[in-house]
Specification:
Distance between the termini: 67 Å
Strand content: 25-35%
Structural class: alpha/beta
Shape: globular
Helix content: 25-40%
Number of helices: 6
Number of strands: 8
Order of helices and strands: HEEHEEHEHEEEHH
Largest sheet: 8 strands, mixed
Amino acid sequence: MRRSLIPLVVMLLFLSACAIGNKHNLCQTEIVAPSGSVSNITVGVQDTRPYITNMDKTEDFIGLVRNHLGIPYDVKTKSKEPLAQDMATAIGTSLEKANSKVETVDLNIKDNLDGVKSKLAQKPADRFLFLKIDEWKLDTYMNTKLMYDLSLYVFDSQMCQLAEDHLSGSENKGAIMVPSQQEAQDIAAFKEKMELFFNNEKIAQALRPAE
């Protein structure tokens, strides 16, 4: 019985030593984007997580890692940029690899939908892709819990909505032994959710040129 506790104790002590200062490189997430998309796409991501809009957390906040006592420490973006900007960069890079020309737009956390559309329209395109983050947070003690609430919208060149999709939930992403594993879980989770969006036929069709 005592031997069986040793790995658990070692893991908790290791997490305690490494709980401070963790950062994730989410902007380099490689997403499989739909092929055959329009030539020009403008991408905007807005972070409306309540603890961001009320300024309890900064915009680069991703989640928490807890030490052996359960005390939480913030995990932030490695780029030091807002999470929304990292996600926009990853989406844009992935769409470019699928042969679209992409520009990204920074969106204010408190813009309403009209404000979002107005800012997106400043960079004219064949399609506008808007991702809204109502929740995205990883919380790691011995296992990682992901809480997410994402909405994706596609608008045409005149800002008429063509498609939308919504994903939300709470998932156990598994145990970790080192903090870098939480980063891998974060990247894999974002890749998974975006590919679920892109595999939605309504979203994929909305991104294709009109016939």
